[in-house]
Amino acid sequence: MSGNNGVPGRTVVTKATMILNAFAGDRAAMSLSDLARATGLPVSTVHRLASELVAWGGLERTDAGGYAVGIRLWEIAARSRRSHGLRETAMPFLQGLFDLTRQHVQLAVVEGTDALLIEKISAAQAVHTIGRAGGRLPLHASAVGKALLAWSPTDVQSRLLGSPLASYTPSTIVSRSALRRELAETRRRGFAIADEEMSLGAVSCAAPVLVGGPEAIAAVSVVTPAGETVPQKWSHAVMAAAFGIARAYTQHRPQPPLSARLTGRGTFPLDGTAVAETAGR
């Protein structure tokens, strides 16, 4: 279904997702004009759809009059098939790893050509990092990414190796042949390391979460300050946490839904007209 805003070939859903996608990266809040520039949509279209997204809860208004991502999106994302159950199962092991290291502990899954962080525990004094829960890290430049990539299907590896590898620091691996060797070594030793490859001053060690097959469903990592210790210092602890998560996940009992249903807000319709949820449906 196409909208009536003078942008042919784009449905209302496409335009709404363009608005939401504008908040990718580090954009915490955007003005109406910022959204129009980022999406290429007319200001009037952005205003209408953003207002409906606010009414639904997908966006929120800021004190400055702009827009920010709404918590309704988190509520829905928490039901993701790939994260619901995994995060809950992993949390005791992530907490144990954090108690041992008092450094950043991360849990990630593959999303496209990135590692998507679905959980992160940090201490106030931990080394500065750019990753955050809900954020993405490159597969080739982070330990958690390399752990996922080393135990990924061939097509995932081929897709990444078929594209230029971005450089983030002088230590980032940008050679395809060097990355292939690194992934082979990662599989041989059972864990991945990144030595200031993603950000200067930070090193990390990660291990795959393997559940009944050769492909990782997730990876867990520890990020520590560079120079204080070698990245592989925590390799045994990280691999033990990953193994514990995998074993617990295979024994995971179905959990009740997070709630009976999403309640209390209108649904976002395909035709751009707010439709109230019917009680008891």
What does this 3D model show about the protein?
- With 281 residues, the protein is an alpha+beta fold.
- The protein has two domains: 1-79 and 258-281, Arc Repressor Mutant, subunit A (Orthogonal Bundle); 86-250, 2-Layer Sandwich (Beta-Lactamase), CATH 3.30.450.40.
- The protein has nine helices and nine strands.
- The strands form two sheets. The protein has a six-stranded antiparallel sheet, with helices on both faces. A three-stranded antiparallel sheet has the order 1-3-2.
- Strand 8 and strand 9 (216-225) form a beta hairpin.
- The longest helix has 16 residues, at 86-101.
- The radius of gyration is 21 Å and the shape is globular.
- Residues 1-5 and 270-281 have low confidence and may be disordered.
* Broad CATH class of the largest domain: Alpha Beta
Rg: 21 Å
Strand order in the sheet with the most strands: 6-5-4-9-8-7
Low-confidence stretches: 1-5, 270-281
- The helix content is 25-40%
Q: Summarize the main sheet.
A: 6 strands, antiparallel
Count the DSSP helices.
9
Terminus-to-terminus distance = 26 Å
As for the number of domains, it is 2
The rough form would be described as: globular
CATH architecture of the largest domain: 2-Layer Sandwich
Count of extended strands: 9
CATH superfamily of the largest domain: GAF domain
Mean pLDDT: 83
The CATH topology of the largest domain: Beta-Lactamase
Order of helices and strands: HEHHEEHHEEEHHHEEEH
Question: Strand content of the residues, in percent?
Answer: 15-25%
Which class of secondary structure composition applies to the elements? alpha+beta
